[in-house]
Amino acid sequence: MRVATWNVNSIRARVGRVVDWLVREDIDVLAMQEIKCKESQFPFEAFQEAGYDVVLHGLNQWNGVAFASRLPMEDVANTFTGMPGFGKALDDGSLPLEARALGVTVDGVRLWSLYVPNGRALGDPHYEYKLVWLKELAAQTAAWMDAHPTQPLALMGDWNIAPLDTDVWDIGVFAESTHVSAPERAAFAEFERIGLTDVVRPLVPTGYTYWDYKQLRFPRNEGMRIDFVMGSQPFADLVTDARIDRNERKGDAPSDHVPVVVDLDLDLSSELATDDDDRPMIFG
C-alpha cells in the first residue's frame, strides 16, 4: 500500500494537479491538509472518476483535512479526545473546534491527516493553542497505542515544526520565530518518546517539504521540512520505501508544500503477528 500526505493549499485551486499526481504515482491513500473548503464545495467528481473515494472535514475557507483512497476507509473520526478549540467562545463557553484532524482505518492501518496549528508568532495566543493542541494529541495517541499495541498507526501531515536545525535553510533566520522554538521541538519530541518515529528520515535524510511563495524561496532552495509521517513501531516495520516529491513544487500554480510518500508491505503484518517474541518492545 502506498500512502502519502500533502498540504494542498486549496483543493479547489489544485484538484487537477492533485488527481493527476495520484494516478501517475499510483497512490493508494492520500492524506490532505488545508483543503480550504466545506464538504458542499469539495470537487468529489474528479476524484471519483479517477477511482478514489473521499472523506473530509472542512468547515470554511480555512484549514480542512481529507483523505482520498481507492481502498475502503473505516472508523472515520474528525476529532481526537481532548482536542482544544480556538477563537471566540460559543454560547456554552467552549471554544470552536477547527477542522485540523481526520482519522481513518485502511486495510487495518490507522491513519490520521493532521494540520497542526501554525502558532503565528512567539507569544501569540495561537502559539499557546498550538502547544496545547500537540500536548492533547500526544496524550491521546499514547492512550490509543496502549489500547491497540499491535495495530499500525501513522500521524501524517503538516506539523508546522522543524525539529532539527537542518530542517530549515538558515537557522539564524528563525531565531525569533515559531516552528523551531524549544517548546515546539519538545512537543514534537514527545511523540518520539511515546513510541512514534519519523519513518521517512532514515530513507530520505535531507530535503525540504515546504517553500514560501515569497522572495524566490523555491529557486533558492530556501525551504523547511515540516511535513512528516510519524509511525508507531508496527507501522515502521511495514515501511519499505519513502520519498519527498520535490518536483511537485515546480510548474504552474503549485502548492507551497510537496507530497511525502511512504510504501508499506502489508504482507509483513501477518508475518510479524506470528513472531511477537522477536518484535521490538515499545512499552515497558
Key traits:
23% helix; 6 helices; alpha+beta; 284 residues; six-stranded mixed sheet
Describe this structure in words.
With 284 residues, the protein is α+β, with helices and mostly antiparallel strands. It contains six helices and twelve strands. The strands form two sheets. Strands 3-4-2-1-12-11 form a six-stranded mixed β-sheet. Strands 5-6-7-8-10-9 form a six-stranded mixed β-sheet. Helix 3 links the parallel strand 7 and strand 8. It is globular.
The biggest sheet amounts to: 6 strands, mixed
Strand order, sheet with most strands:
3-4-2-1-12-11
Shape: globular
DSSP E strands, number: 12
Helix content range of the residues, please? Answer: 10-25%
Put simply, the count of helices is 6
What structural class results from the helix and strand content?
alpha+beta
> Secondary-structure element sequence?
EHEHEEEEEHEHEEHEEH
N- to C-terminal distance: 30 Å
Uncertain runs are 274-284
Round the Cα radius of gyration to an integer and report it.
18 Å
Quick check: average pLDDT?
94
Please report which band the strand proportion falls in: under 5%, 5-15%, 15-25%, 25-35%, 35-45% or over 45%: 15-25%
